Amino acid sequence: MKYGSRLQIVCLACVAVLFGAHRALGWELSHEEYHAAHLNELINLEEGPKNLLLPFNRTRIPGSEGSRDVQRFIIEHFNTTLAGEWAVETQPFEENGYRFNNLVMTLQNNASEFLVLAAHYDTKIVPTGMVGAIDSAASCAALLYTAQFLTHIARHERANQYSKLDVDPVITGSTLGVKIVFFDGEEAIEEWGPEDSIYGARRLAAQWLADGTMARVRLLLLMDLLGSGEEEPMVPSYYANSHQDYQLLNRIEDDLLFARDDGSTAQSPLAAEVARQRKLLDPTDYRFVGLGYSVVGDDHTPFLAAGVPVLHAIPLPFPSTWHTVQDDFQHLDAAETRHWTLLVCEFVVQSLRFRAQ
Ligand SMILES: [Zn+2]
Protein backbone atom coordinates (compact mmCIF):
# COMPACT_ATOMS: atom_id res chain seq x y z
CA MET A 1 0.00 0.00 0.00
CA LYS A 2 1.09 3.47 -0.80
CA TYR A 3 0.11 5.21 2.40
CA GLY A 4 0.81 4.18 5.98
CA SER A 5 -2.41 3.74 7.92
CA ARG A 6 -1.18 5.72 10.93
CA LEU A 7 -0.44 8.74 8.77
CA GLN A 8 -3.83 8.35 7.19
CA ILE A 9 -5.64 8.32 10.54
CA VAL A 10 -3.81 11.50 11.58
CA CYS A 11 -4.79 13.16 8.30
CA LEU A 12 -8.42 12.12 8.63
CA ALA A 13 -8.49 13.33 12.21
CA CYS A 14 -7.15 16.70 11.04
CA VAL A 15 -9.84 16.90 8.37
CA ALA A 16 -12.49 16.18 11.00
CA VAL A 17 -11.15 18.97 13.22
CA LEU A 18 -10.82 21.44 10.35
CA PHE A 19 -14.32 20.91 9.07
CA GLY A 20 -16.06 20.75 12.40
CA ALA A 21 -18.35 18.07 13.61
CA HIS A 22 -18.47 16.09 10.34
CA ARG A 23 -21.85 14.60 11.02
CA ALA A 24 -23.03 13.99 7.50
CA LEU A 25 -24.66 10.70 8.40
CA GLY A 26 -24.40 10.10 12.09
CA TRP A 27 -25.33 7.05 14.10
CA GLU A 28 -28.69 6.73 15.68
CA LEU A 29 -28.58 6.23 19.39
CA SER A 30 -30.93 3.28 19.28
CA HIS A 31 -28.62 1.51 16.88
CA GLU A 32 -25.57 2.22 19.01
CA GLU A 33 -27.40 0.81 21.99
CA TYR A 34 -28.36 -2.32 20.09
CA HIS A 35 -24.81 -2.95 18.92
CA ALA A 36 -23.34 -2.19 22.34
CA ALA A 37 -25.72 -4.73 23.88
CA HIS A 38 -25.31 -7.53 21.33
CA LEU A 39 -22.32 -7.32 19.02
CA ASN A 40 -19.59 -8.42 21.42
CA GLU A 41 -21.63 -11.39 22.54
CA LEU A 42 -22.57 -12.59 19.06
CA ILE A 43 -19.29 -12.03 17.21
CA ASN A 44 -16.39 -13.26 19.31
CA LEU A 45 -14.00 -16.20 19.73
CA GLU A 46 -15.36 -17.57 23.00
CA GLU A 47 -18.01 -20.27 23.16
CA GLY A 48 -21.47 -19.03 23.97
CA PRO A 49 -25.04 -20.00 23.13
CA LYS A 50 -25.56 -17.06 20.78
CA ASN A 51 -22.14 -17.07 19.09
CA LEU A 52 -22.56 -16.55 15.33
CA LEU A 53 -18.90 -16.96 14.42
CA LEU A 54 -17.64 -20.20 15.98
CA PRO A 55 -20.09 -22.56 14.23
CA PHE A 56 -18.06 -21.78 11.09
CA ASN A 57 -14.87 -23.11 12.70
CA ARG A 58 -14.72 -26.29 10.61
CA THR A 59 -14.13 -27.34 7.03
CA ARG A 60 -17.12 -26.69 4.77
CA ILE A 61 -16.27 -28.54 1.56
CA PRO A 62 -19.28 -28.71 -0.82
CA GLY A 63 -21.45 -31.76 -0.14
CA SER A 64 -19.62 -32.66 3.11
CA GLU A 65 -21.06 -33.12 6.58
CA GLY A 66 -19.35 -29.88 7.68
CA SER A 67 -21.07 -28.02 4.87
CA ARG A 68 -24.48 -29.48 5.74
CA ASP A 69 -24.09 -28.64 9.44
CA VAL A 70 -23.22 -25.04 8.65
CA GLN A 71 -26.13 -24.79 6.21
CA ARG A 72 -28.45 -26.04 8.96
CA PHE A 73 -27.01 -23.46 11.37
CA ILE A 74 -27.56 -20.60 8.91
CA ILE A 75 -31.09 -21.69 7.99
CA GLU A 76 -32.02 -22.23 11.63
CA HIS A 77 -30.82 -18.72 12.46
CA PHE A 78 -33.26 -17.29 9.92
CA ASN A 79 -36.10 -19.71 10.66
CA THR A 80 -36.02 -19.47 14.44
CA THR A 81 -34.23 -16.37 15.78
CA LEU A 82 -35.42 -14.22 12.89
CA ALA A 83 -38.62 -16.14 12.14
CA GLY A 84 -41.29 -14.44 10.12
CA GLU A 85 -39.21 -11.61 8.69
CA TRP A 86 -37.12 -13.38 6.06
CA ALA A 87 -38.06 -15.58 3.11
CA VAL A 88 -35.67 -18.55 3.14
CA GLU A 89 -34.74 -20.15 -0.18
CA THR A 90 -32.23 -22.85 -0.99
CA GLN A 91 -30.79 -23.62 -4.41
CA PRO A 92 -29.35 -27.15 -4.44
CA PHE A 93 -27.61 -28.39 -7.58
CA GLU A 94 -24.87 -30.70 -8.79
CA GLU A 95 -21.88 -29.85 -10.94
CA ASN A 96 -18.47 -31.40 -11.53
CA GLY A 97 -19.41 -34.36 -9.30
CA TYR A 98 -20.17 -32.21 -6.24
CA ARG A 99 -23.40 -31.19 -4.57
CA PHE A 100 -23.75 -27.49 -3.88
CA ASN A 101 -26.43 -25.42 -2.17
CA ASN A 102 -26.84 -21.63 -2.24
CA LEU A 103 -28.81 -20.07 0.62
CA VAL A 104 -30.79 -16.94 -0.25
CA MET A 105 -32.60 -14.92 2.42
CA THR A 106 -34.93 -12.04 1.59
CA LEU A 107 -36.29 -9.21 3.72
CA GLN A 108 -39.23 -7.28 2.21
CA ASN A 109 -39.89 -9.83 -0.51
CA ASN A 110 -42.31 -7.50 -2.31
CA ALA A 111 -39.77 -4.69 -2.72
CA SER A 112 -39.20 -3.33 -6.21
CA GLU A 113 -35.39 -3.48 -5.95
CA PHE A 114 -32.87 -5.21 -3.72
CA LEU A 115 -29.62 -4.53 -1.98
CA VAL A 116 -27.79 -7.86 -2.05
CA LEU A 117 -25.24 -8.71 0.65
CA ALA A 118 -23.17 -11.82 0.02
CA ALA A 119 -20.31 -14.04 1.12
CA HIS A 120 -19.33 -17.63 0.42
CA TYR A 121 -19.54 -20.28 3.13
CA ASP A 122 -17.65 -23.15 1.46
CA THR A 123 -13.99 -23.91 2.12
CA LYS A 124 -11.18 -25.08 -0.11
CA ILE A 125 -10.40 -28.82 -0.29
CA VAL A 126 -6.62 -28.23 -0.27
CA PRO A 127 -4.80 -27.57 2.03
CA THR A 128 -6.48 -30.28 4.08
CA GLY A 129 -8.17 -28.98 7.20
CA MET A 130 -8.32 -25.32 6.17
CA VAL A 131 -11.33 -23.80 7.92
CA GLY A 132 -11.32 -20.50 6.02
CA ALA A 133 -11.62 -18.08 8.93
CA ILE A 134 -11.20 -15.06 6.66
CA ASP A 135 -12.31 -17.11 3.64
CA SER A 136 -15.11 -16.42 4.49
CA ALA A 137 -16.33 -17.43 7.96
CA ALA A 138 -15.96 -13.90 9.34
CA SER A 139 -18.00 -12.40 6.50
CA CYS A 140 -20.76 -15.02 6.93
CA ALA A 141 -20.99 -14.28 10.66
CA ALA A 142 -21.14 -10.55 9.94
CA LEU A 143 -24.08 -11.19 7.60
CA LEU A 144 -25.90 -13.33 10.19
CA TYR A 145 -25.59 -10.48 12.69
CA THR A 146 -26.66 -7.92 10.08
CA ALA A 147 -29.80 -9.98 9.48
CA GLN A 148 -30.50 -10.09 13.21
CA PHE A 149 -30.01 -6.32 13.48
CA LEU A 150 -32.32 -5.62 10.52
CA THR A 151 -34.92 -7.98 12.00
CA HIS A 152 -34.79 -6.01 15.24
CA ILE A 153 -35.44 -2.77 13.34
CA ALA A 154 -38.21 -4.27 11.20
CA ARG A 155 -40.04 -5.67 14.22
CA HIS A 156 -39.67 -2.38 16.06
CA GLU A 157 -41.12 -0.53 13.07
CA ARG A 158 -44.04 -2.92 12.74
CA ALA A 159 -44.79 -2.73 16.44
CA ASN A 160 -44.90 1.05 16.20
CA GLN A 161 -46.54 1.43 12.81
CA TYR A 162 -49.71 2.93 14.25
CA SER A 163 -47.95 5.25 16.65
CA LYS A 164 -45.86 8.23 15.71
CA LEU A 165 -42.20 7.39 15.31
CA ASP A 166 -39.47 9.96 15.82
CA VAL A 167 -37.85 8.94 12.56
CA ASP A 168 -39.19 7.59 9.29
CA PRO A 169 -39.24 3.80 9.19
CA VAL A 170 -36.08 2.47 7.57
CA ILE A 171 -37.08 -0.99 6.42
CA THR A 172 -40.84 -0.89 6.10
CA GLY A 173 -40.58 2.61 4.60
CA SER A 174 -38.11 1.77 1.82
CA THR A 175 -38.66 0.68 -1.76
CA LEU A 176 -35.44 -1.30 -1.38
CA GLY A 177 -35.49 -4.81 0.05
CA VAL A 178 -32.49 -6.79 1.27
CA LYS A 179 -31.25 -10.16 0.10
CA ILE A 180 -28.49 -11.96 1.96
CA VAL A 181 -26.80 -14.68 -0.07
CA PHE A 182 -24.54 -17.41 1.28
CA PHE A 183 -22.80 -18.80 -1.78
CA ASP A 184 -21.59 -22.38 -1.98
CA GLY A 185 -18.68 -23.46 -4.19
CA GLU A 186 -16.73 -20.24 -4.53
CA GLU A 187 -13.47 -22.15 -4.29
CA ALA A 188 -12.05 -24.21 -7.13
CA ILE A 189 -12.27 -27.98 -6.76
CA GLU A 190 -8.89 -28.47 -8.46
CA GLU A 191 -7.59 -25.37 -10.22
CA TRP A 192 -9.20 -21.93 -10.47
CA GLY A 193 -10.75 -21.28 -13.85
CA PRO A 194 -14.05 -20.20 -15.43
CA GLU A 195 -15.46 -23.75 -15.19
CA ASP A 196 -13.87 -24.59 -11.85
CA SER A 197 -14.77 -21.79 -9.42
CA ILE A 198 -17.73 -19.71 -8.21
CA TYR A 199 -20.14 -22.62 -8.79
CA GLY A 200 -22.86 -21.11 -6.61
CA ALA A 201 -22.54 -17.58 -7.97
CA ARG A 202 -22.73 -18.78 -11.59
CA ARG A 203 -25.83 -20.83 -10.78
CA LEU A 204 -27.64 -18.07 -8.91
CA ALA A 205 -26.78 -15.48 -11.57
CA ALA A 206 -28.27 -17.76 -14.22
CA GLN A 207 -31.44 -18.15 -12.17
CA TRP A 208 -31.75 -14.44 -11.52
CA LEU A 209 -31.25 -13.65 -15.22
CA ALA A 210 -33.96 -16.17 -16.11
CA ASP A 211 -36.53 -15.07 -13.53
CA GLY A 212 -35.97 -11.30 -13.80
CA THR A 213 -34.46 -10.81 -10.34
CA MET A 214 -31.14 -9.62 -11.78
CA ALA A 215 -32.69 -6.44 -13.20
CA ARG A 216 -33.99 -5.62 -9.71
CA VAL A 217 -30.58 -5.78 -7.99
CA ARG A 218 -29.56 -2.24 -7.12
CA LEU A 219 -26.14 -3.27 -5.72
CA LEU A 220 -24.21 -6.40 -4.76
CA LEU A 221 -22.03 -5.94 -1.69
CA LEU A 222 -19.66 -8.92 -1.71
CA MET A 223 -17.53 -9.56 1.38
CA ASP A 224 -14.45 -11.79 1.22
CA LEU A 225 -11.11 -12.24 3.02
CA LEU A 226 -12.11 -9.88 5.85
CA GLY A 227 -11.06 -10.24 9.49
CA SER A 228 -7.32 -10.97 9.25
CA GLY A 229 -6.40 -8.14 11.60
CA GLU A 230 -3.42 -7.33 9.40
CA GLU A 231 -2.84 -3.58 9.15
CA GLU A 232 -2.30 -3.72 5.43
CA PRO A 233 -3.55 -4.13 2.84
CA MET A 234 -6.75 -2.15 3.23
CA VAL A 235 -9.88 -2.29 1.10
CA PRO A 236 -9.87 0.03 -1.93
CA SER A 237 -12.68 1.02 -4.29
CA TYR A 238 -12.75 -1.21 -7.36
CA TYR A 239 -15.45 0.11 -9.69
CA ALA A 240 -16.58 3.52 -10.93
CA ASN A 241 -20.28 2.61 -10.87
CA SER A 242 -20.16 1.61 -7.19
CA HIS A 243 -17.72 4.31 -6.09
CA GLN A 244 -20.51 6.36 -4.52
CA ASP A 245 -21.43 3.34 -2.42
CA TYR A 246 -17.78 2.89 -1.45
CA GLN A 247 -17.72 6.54 -0.39
CA LEU A 248 -20.85 6.00 1.69
CA LEU A 249 -19.19 3.04 3.42
CA ASN A 250 -16.08 5.14 3.95
CA ARG A 251 -18.08 8.01 5.48
CA ILE A 252 -19.79 5.54 7.78
CA GLU A 253 -16.38 4.29 8.90
CA ASP A 254 -15.22 7.88 9.48
CA ASP A 255 -18.35 8.50 11.55
CA LEU A 256 -17.74 5.35 13.57
CA LEU A 257 -14.13 6.31 14.23
CA PHE A 258 -14.09 10.07 14.39
CA ALA A 259 -17.40 11.92 14.42
CA ARG A 260 -18.72 13.03 17.79
CA ASP A 261 -21.53 15.37 18.75
CA ASP A 262 -19.12 17.86 20.26
CA GLY A 263 -16.93 17.88 17.17
CA SER A 264 -14.10 16.19 18.99
CA THR A 265 -12.15 13.41 17.37
CA ALA A 266 -12.28 11.19 20.43
CA GLN A 267 -13.06 7.58 19.78
CA SER A 268 -16.72 6.68 20.03
CA PRO A 269 -17.50 4.41 22.99
CA LEU A 270 -18.93 1.88 20.54
CA ALA A 271 -15.82 1.81 18.37
CA ALA A 272 -13.56 1.62 21.42
CA GLU A 273 -15.55 -1.25 22.85
CA VAL A 274 -16.23 -3.49 19.89
CA ALA A 275 -14.42 -2.44 16.70
CA ARG A 276 -10.94 -1.93 15.29
CA GLN A 277 -9.87 1.60 16.05
CA ARG A 278 -8.31 2.33 12.71
CA LYS A 279 -9.39 2.65 9.10
CA LEU A 280 -9.95 -0.54 7.13
CA LEU A 281 -11.02 1.28 3.96
CA ASP A 282 -8.51 3.29 1.94
CA PRO A 283 -10.31 6.07 0.03
CA THR A 284 -6.97 7.40 -1.25
CA ASP A 285 -6.38 4.25 -3.31
CA TYR A 286 -7.69 4.90 -6.83
CA ARG A 287 -5.67 2.21 -8.60
CA PHE A 288 -8.65 0.19 -9.74
CA VAL A 289 -11.63 2.55 -9.99
CA GLY A 290 -11.05 3.60 -13.57
CA LEU A 291 -9.88 0.29 -14.98
CA GLY A 292 -13.29 -0.90 -16.13
CA TYR A 293 -12.53 -4.54 -15.42
CA SER A 294 -12.09 -6.88 -12.44
CA VAL A 295 -8.64 -7.41 -10.99
CA VAL A 296 -9.98 -10.00 -8.53
CA GLY A 297 -11.90 -13.12 -9.53
CA ASP A 298 -14.70 -13.80 -7.06
CA ASP A 299 -18.42 -14.51 -6.74
CA HIS A 300 -19.32 -11.08 -8.11
CA THR A 301 -18.08 -11.83 -11.64
CA PRO A 302 -21.32 -13.13 -13.25
CA PHE A 303 -23.35 -10.36 -11.60
CA LEU A 304 -20.92 -7.72 -12.82
CA ALA A 305 -21.17 -9.22 -16.32
CA ALA A 306 -24.96 -8.84 -16.07
CA GLY A 307 -24.58 -5.12 -15.35
CA VAL A 308 -25.08 -5.16 -11.58
CA PRO A 309 -23.02 -2.53 -9.69
CA VAL A 310 -20.69 -4.34 -7.29
CA LEU A 311 -19.13 -3.10 -4.08
CA HIS A 312 -16.36 -5.59 -3.42
CA ALA A 313 -15.16 -5.56 0.18
CA ILE A 314 -11.89 -7.45 -0.20
CA PRO A 315 -8.36 -6.33 0.63
CA LEU A 316 -5.72 -6.43 -2.10
CA PRO A 317 -3.17 -7.99 -2.05
CA PHE A 318 -4.79 -10.74 -0.01
CA PRO A 319 -3.93 -11.25 3.67
CA SER A 320 -0.91 -13.45 4.39
CA THR A 321 -2.94 -16.41 5.69
CA TRP A 322 -4.98 -16.67 2.48
CA HIS A 323 -5.32 -20.28 1.25
CA THR A 324 -3.01 -21.66 3.94
CA VAL A 325 -3.84 -23.78 6.99
CA GLN A 326 -3.02 -20.66 9.01
CA ASP A 327 -6.34 -19.24 7.85
CA ASP A 328 -7.77 -20.49 11.13
CA PHE A 329 -9.58 -18.95 14.09
CA GLN A 330 -6.34 -18.32 15.96
CA HIS A 331 -5.43 -15.92 13.18
CA LEU A 332 -8.87 -14.31 13.07
CA ASP A 333 -9.41 -10.84 14.48
CA ALA A 334 -12.83 -10.69 16.15
CA ALA A 335 -12.66 -6.90 16.60
CA GLU A 336 -12.07 -6.41 12.89
CA THR A 337 -14.95 -8.77 12.14
CA ARG A 338 -17.19 -6.66 14.40
CA HIS A 339 -15.90 -3.52 12.70
CA TRP A 340 -17.02 -4.80 9.30
CA THR A 341 -20.31 -5.91 10.83
CA LEU A 342 -21.01 -2.38 12.08
CA LEU A 343 -20.12 -0.86 8.70
CA VAL A 344 -22.43 -3.22 6.83
CA CYS A 345 -25.33 -2.74 9.28
CA GLU A 346 -25.16 1.03 8.94
CA PHE A 347 -24.57 0.81 5.18
CA VAL A 348 -27.85 -1.07 4.81
CA VAL A 349 -29.72 1.44 6.98
CA GLN A 350 -28.37 4.40 4.99
CA SER A 351 -28.98 2.71 1.62
CA LEU A 352 -32.57 1.89 2.50
CA ARG A 353 -33.17 5.37 3.82
CA PHE A 354 -32.03 6.86 0.50
CA ARG A 355 -34.82 4.87 -1.10
CA ALA A 356 -37.56 5.98 1.30
CA GLN A 357 -41.05 5.64 -0.15
ZN1 LIG B 1 -10.58 -18.71 -1.04
Automatic annotation (TrEMBL):
The enzyme's E.C. designation: 3.4.-.-
UniProt xrefs under SUPFAM superfamilies: Zn-dependent exopeptidases
Classification via InterPro entries: Peptidase_M28, QC/QCL
GO biological process: proteolysis
Protein name, per record: Peptide hydrolase
Gene Ontology molecular-function annotations: glutaminyl-peptide cyclotransferase activity; peptidase activity; zinc ion binding
UniProt organism field: Saccharomyces kudriavzevii (strain ATCC MYA-4449 / AS 2.2408 / CBS 8840 / NBRC 1802 / NCYC 2889) (Yeast)
Peptidase M28 domain residues: 102-348
Annotated keywords: Acyltransferase, Hydrolase, Metal-binding, Protease, Signal, Transferase, Zinc
Name of the top EC class for this enzyme: hydrolase
Gene3D superfamilies for this protein: Zn peptidases
Entries under PANTHER family matching the protein: GLUTAMINYL-PEPTIDE CYCLOTRANSFERASE, GLUTAMINYL-PEPTIDE CYCLOTRANSFERASE-RELATED
Source species, domain of life: Eukaryota
